[in-house]
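Sequence only, no structure available. Ideas?
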Amino acid sequence: MALLNLMRFVVLQQKSDNLNNFKNVVKIWREIYLDPLSELLEDSQAVFKKKKSEIEHEMSPHDEPQLSFSVGEEETLEVSKFEKLQSIDLTLTGFEMIGSLLDRLIELLKLKNCY
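Reply:
I predicted one. Tokens follow.
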């Protein structure tokens, strides 16, 4: 998110008399960062939404399941269904924030005719 904010700041500070050079910079941004980030966000959101749906539908609302997972060979604390859903929701919110920043950056680039 910090890099997206920095890019947004650079776009806002860009003067209209130097747009040809800036268009080349934006082309590199798109190839290296913006386009891959956009695709990754879409894919990641789809995966987490699918996982959320699976967790919501795998047990009845009256069940309080205990999910556990391991890191390496160590067993971690058990995580309830509610906690797992809460974690997924927080992750999806983070993705939405990044997506919003990305959308605003692209809008600014389009306004400057650089995208």
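Residues 107 and 115 are 9 Å apart (CA to CA).
Hope that gets you unstuck.
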